[in-house]
Design goal:
- Chains A, B, C, D: InterPro entries: ACT-like_dom_sf (IPR045865), ACT_dom (IPR002912), Formyl_transf_N (IPR002376), Formyl_transf_N_sf (IPR036477), PurU (IPR004810), PurU_ACT (IPR044074).
- Chains A, B, C, D: Pfam families: ACT (PF01842), Formyl_trans_N (PF00551).
- Chains A, B, C, D: Belongs to the PurU family.
- The structure is a homotetramer.
- By secondary structure, chain A is of the alpha/beta class.
- Chain A has 2 domains: about 5-85, ACT domain (Alpha-Beta Plaits), CATH 3.30.70.260; about 90-284, Formyl transferase, N-terminal domain (Rossmann fold, 3-Layer(aba) Sandwich), CATH 3.40.50.
- Chain A has helices at about 15-25, 60-75, 100-110, 130-135, 150-160, 180-185, 205-210, 245-270, and strands at about 5-10, 30-40, 45-55, 80-85, 90-95, 115-125, 140, 165-170, 190-195, 215-225, 235-240, 275, 280-284.
- In chain A, the strands form 3 sheets. Chain A has a 7-stranded mixed beta sheet with strand order 7-6-5-8-9-10-11.
- The longest helix of chain A is centred in the C-terminal third of the chain and has 24 residues, at about 245-270.
Chain lengths: ~280, ~280, ~280, ~280
């Protein structure tokens, strides 16, 4: 994505913002590659826009573009975020013993399909260490503390992440992160929940799904917030099951939905396609 | 389905029951058309079997078959239900103002795709009366009572149904039936709920779905029990939505999932494919 | 869609066109509701844009807008089409004996989900006449001529359509229209083919699908061109089948895919979401 | 699957075969775990049955069971195949440079989800050698011959396979096997084709799909026969694409459908769920 930039604009909807932004880009000889926009309420709602554009010698031009965007958007009272798409985001993965989501992310990364670098995998177990290192990725083993206080192991993880990552993915990481951790980590954290949220919140969703006798099981990728399994949903999908599937079968079939859903969510986040507003996401 | 019968066998799993049943059918010159079976737990679980078979002059032979099945299955401690598939089940439909599920059922029935007769449609509104009668189906208007006590209108509906129907379908009937009604009606009642249960139980599921920001909406058809939206699920399905869909859009797209899910559930019930055990269904 | 307009712009890609168009709209106090764009080749490809916008007293303002757009887009060498979305397109339906696609379109239209008027249904059979007229839609019976020459019945249909319709939908119309008809009709013609094209081109696709032993059957909606089943595809979908489904079962299950696919294609066409380029469609 | 056996019975349909087979199993104290059956034509068609059953000390009992089955089925003129499910099938994988199908199979095998052993991976390239050996699987590099005559490299592969494998999987193996090879290999060969067959037979299906402007791309797993891409289909699936996807995007999205479809086909084959009749499969 050499010489590609992504511009996100958002704020209270006002007439003329598309013209203002695209006019500025045209004057700077930028070529628009894609443009998406959305207003969540035609009467006084918020406006969201994503533009991807190219320009020769983009990196050198970014500071001036940034400053002009600031003055252009000030009268509109809108905020913006301009990112150089030639710089991949740095993604840390937290995992436990399950490898299906973890390995799928590492494969896709190696295939060149995820626009990220992976500076580290951190796990509270060491069973996946060899697999991870085969991909040339550093693996750190941080065992979970026994008992409800996880502050020491969380501190150790925070120290590894600090300054090194742009977002964190919980690839079936089976520890509940404390609110303190989520606050301190300072970057978005993406989780994969093994159910079609809001059904079967909390632990053991496949067992609960079997007990309720559902005919589809699903997976949900969402941003982690202080309320467990209540963060903004990025992506979801389901797969058909029958009465003959045991809870173990559900977990097995669900695993393949989990890895697809998580990889889509991670890709879209890495491409700056996901904008959060309250407990919702706009996915362009 | 002339000369076709369906035999359902169920009870605590024991070795030899398939052989006993199919042996009996072979001795009576019955041709097995399909056979499905399922044991919900290999160690001491329950056994469920569905056999469809044909035999010349079936109706005349049924009483003897029934009596021999009773003696054959007695040592196995299993129950059975033998139905003549040339006799379609009588299905009453309860509806309100929405017509998408109602008309889809009537139209599939007219196409010859639902193995049922439709002796009546009962509605608490009269807006669909002309449409229903165009299909040659009797329409009865039973307005809902105001206030929490619905005993009088429910009594009127029960009187219409009594002795005339084999099962009842709630095709987006927007009244909650009392436990008293469910007890007295004496036949299975199938509902279509406009969400992917157990998510968004109760009223206004599309509004709740919009508020939660889900990426799929769904529909669930289930048997009605005394607990609202908690009965055994027969069938479910979902459709993809985006942030740009309003709650009205969700309802609109969901409507087409509802009609598909309900018609599958009704077809399977009418074909004796659905067996209930506790809060679960086995769908053969 | 009062005071809503849709602007389609297309031609060889050039920098600055988004800015030019949105700048013009801003000067005319138009509010952009949605904007989609696509370039089919970053190096010298074609550019396609769809903008929906609102403006008070739109109808009165359209002529001036149209003339300014012409001058604005001239230096870009681009063409455009500006439509008043408060004026629904007039859709004629051609049908034969199958009613599933026909009735689904009429239902959706009556529910207010299709932004069209339906001035007429024309059929070479009269079996659906009563159903169609129940919806308050005129029904014309034009029997097909025997033999290969259909010029007289086609002339009769053309006379009915002339000046009265903006597009034609073949809702399982079982006659092959002559090239002469397609040329003379002068409006887009949308067909639903009962297979996942390009598999099973021509007659009897479900029979061919059964013979080949496929595990999915599908439907394809496309614009009709002079080459049978080769026109630009608008929408496709599939449904799972098994070895146990007969060719009749495939047709039955496929019918429900056909009606969904056709109604999506018709909706998108009616909303000016579909742009044709050669044998392809861009669907915004 | 200790003490589990699978019995396949097939031949011209006759009344009483279920009773005969299940009666024999009951007399031998076998517990039926699952039973599926299918008749492809109620009037003089063929009958197919699959029974999975358990019995203590199964292996010791198999020879006697086999001999009694032979006498029992003789009057029915039916053939059968009895397999000990505690003995996993030996699966060789042939691959080229693409790793998505190959690694997915190896990873599912390691997770214990494929009831097979993998005695070897053979490839005409060596790029996947390290990955394969990380899973503890032998890797053999057999470069393809230049020119149309591949007899020498095929002979080398045949020598590796001979006596060592029960079936062969072509996991995106980019060489066309000669009819001579298919005859000599003597075991079923399963291929994954990167399109929804019979659409886009032959090379470059994603490019052809882009050219035709389809809205879904798919994958097909089938048994290899002498006619290229014409063998009996085991499984198919599709994924939605848009006008904005390039041929490279189609290949990328299709890759994930390929790995799912191939792994389902391989699993079902390994579990003796797939029966071939002519160019069709019955999948129980």
């Amino acid at each position: 994505m050499r010489d590609h930039a992504c511009l996100i604009v958002y704020g209270p909807d006002k007439r003329g913002v598309v013209a203002a932004v695209t006019g500025l880009l045209a004057r700077h000889e930028c070529n628009i590659v894609s443009l998406d926009q959305y207003t969540d309420n035609p009467d006084g709602g918020d406006y969201f826009q994503r533009v991807v554009f190219t320009r020769p010698h983009l990196t050198a031009a970014l500071p001036e573009l940034e400053s002009e965007l600031a003055s252009t958007l000030k009268p509109f009272d809108m905020e913006f975020k301009l990112t150089d798409q030639s710089v991949p985001k740095r993604m840390a993965i937290l995992a436990s013993t399950s490898d299906h989501c973890l390995l799928d992310l590492l494969w896709r990364h190696r295939r060149g399909e995820l626009p990220v670098t992976v500076p580290m995998v951190v796990s509270n177990h060491d069973v996946t260490a060899d697999d991870v290192r085969t991909f040339g990725i550093p693996f750190f083993h941080v065992p979970s503390q026994h008992g409800p206080d996880k502050s020491q192991s969380e501190a150790e993880i925070l120290k590894l992440l600090a300054g090194n990552v742009d977002f964190v993915v919980l690839a079936r990481y089976m520890q509940i992160l404390s609110n303190d951790f989520i606050e301190k980590v300072g970057v978005p954290v993406i989780n994969i929940h093994h159910s079609f949220l809001p059904a079967f919140i909390g632990a053991g969703p496949y067992k609960k799904a079997k007990e309720r006798g559902v005919k589809l099981v699903g997976a949900t990728s969402h941003y982690v917030t202080e309320e467990l399994d209540e963060g903004p949903i990025i992506e979801q999908d389901v797969v058909r099951v029958t009465h003959a599937d045991t809870a173990v079968d559900l977990a097995r079939r669900g695993a393949y939905v989990e890895r697809e859903v998580l990889s889509r969510a991670v890709t879209w986040h890495a491409q700056d396609r996901v904008i959060r507003k309250g407990n919702h996401t706009i996915v362009f």
